[in-house]
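Escalation from tier 1.

The customer reports that the assembly of two entities below gives different structure tokens on two consecutive runs. Tier 1 could not reproduce it. I'm attaching the input and our single run for tier 2 to review.
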Amino acid sequence: MKVILDGMGGDNAPKEIVKGAVEALALCDGEICIVGDETQIMDELKECKYSGDRITVQHASEVIRTDEAPIKAVRRKKDSSLVVGLEMVKDGRGDVLVSAGNTGAILAGSLFTLGRIQGIDRPTLASIYPILGTDKPSLLVDAGANSDCKAENLLEFGVMGSIYMEKVLGREYPEVGLVSLGTEDTKGTMLTKGAFELLENAKLNFVGNVEARDIPKGICDVIVCDGFTGNVILKLTEGLAWNILKLLKKKFTEGIKATMGAALLKGKMNDLKSQFDYSEYGGAPILGVKGPVVKMHGSSSANAVKNTIVKAIPYAAEDVVGMIQSHTENIEEIKMRTV
Amino acid sequence: MKVILDGMGGDNAPKEIVKGAVEALALCDGEICIVGDETQIMDELKECKYSGDRITVQHASEVIRTDEAPIKAVRRKKDSSLVVGLEMVKDGRGDVLVSAGNTGAILAGSLFTLGRIQGIDRPTLASIYPILGTDKPSLLVDAGANSDCKAENLLEFGVMGSIYMEKVLGREYPEVGLVSLGTEDTKGTMLTKGAFELLENAKLNFVGNVEARDIPKGICDVIVCDGFTGNVILKLTEGLAWNILKLLKKKFTEGIKATMGAALLKGKMNDLKSQFDYSEYGGAPILGVKGPVVKMHGSSSANAVKNTIVKAIPYAAEDVVGMIQSHTENIEEIKMRTV
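Tier 1 run:
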């Protein structure tokens, strides 16, 4: 297995990216090829005192910035670390691409370079959703790639998310739920009602509608929604958790009694904080394109890079892309039947 | 001012409803008329040792249950506490209706009995959104009444929410934000892009798009979104906060050191819990119908009932309904201009 790593994407590139690659070697077999400015990457490898042969460097002279218009950037910057990396996966010179760069560019680049899987109308970004107090996160699909969706797209998200959950995260016969206004079958919008019918007819362990209040409890393994809703769920969770922890910290330093109590609870508070730390869970896979691609958070630390590389290997090795391809006939059939 | 109180709606009716009414008297002027089964309500008043003349009872023989189909229930049960109460507001025998009953029935009943304000296509349910660490909650419109919306509806929500925030919650020139995928003007779905244009042209303090991660920080006074998104925001907040507190409680009893720490922090933890307690903030107003109506949570306690009654009085006294009516001309004009 050879992981292609975009060395220049994200806020902390190339330093944290290279550091994460070196750290990942201890946890997995295979090779890593870092794509980007050769001089900078070699310097960082030296910094990490790395001198082995499992990391190679592929030079690319351009970088796509986070604030660039995705489609234009991907079309124009043919020698960017992202596009060069994607070409390597396409050519078979690598098995999976990992990048912390511009999300839109990763999506557009994956679509242009690798192509869409037949039968999949909308490739999607799936994100791990941590469930507090457990080590069994849920998978949220779509996590923000497709803001305006049709019912058929939500079916695709459910099918692809279910395969990824089973093959990569090792959850057998994953439960798939549809975000809606209530748990009753009849509740929802025109979009969710249409998607409900399609998901019910798919070869999935579909558990029906789920309410947003039950998502943090881990109500199901795969949470299906449109990308607008997925974005709201992810960002609200992040914002609210951050706010609660901030308020706790403030309250816990008001007065001597509280400060003493807080000192005794410091370890427990850190446990809690780490539960919200996305860097522990690996990145977000792009599903529906003809090759495995994983997007990391733009501000990924070396630790996040390391964990993402480790999780990216089964994504490539288990041939999730092939599995999705073999399910598309089934998808087409369901779509035809219920239209 | 005379508050009409649905004595039979909600999980804890009539006991907590009546108790809340008695408690409210100490905090406000005016009268309360409790509508429902006379015998049961009189019994509860006796239980509260109430013998004054500021509470009266209006008998109604029927009750609309939470699980009933709203429109059918409102049409058939003409002598239900909800419908009788709404008729009283319509006739001028009362100034505002407060109910903890079936949300759909309150919405449908308000629409059928009181009628829609001209120029408002979709009456809405607005909900208080508590901002941790402050006593300045935001207002979320729509909180779940209208799941499929057009851009014009979001404009209406913004205008009505802004008036309510200013007149009832006393926030001058309230900042109105639109929930979207990013803060840039161009980000969003077809729906939010359309709504952005309309809100920008309205006589509002429109601050543009807001991201879900900033909602818990109190990014703006009035948060505008479709009812599906509003429902997700409210329920996810509730579920996540509950989950975090549950996990903290668990962690804080693991081991002697933690238990000691938790004992020292008990007061602070209770402070935090009360910040999530919706019963402190009063109910959710129905906006866009020709009369003030306030919906409380189905499981409202006497404390929630008391606070809702107190907040319902300025809603009626400040003539929010009249204010909305006088703004509809402006709304129609904006809709025409941008279509």
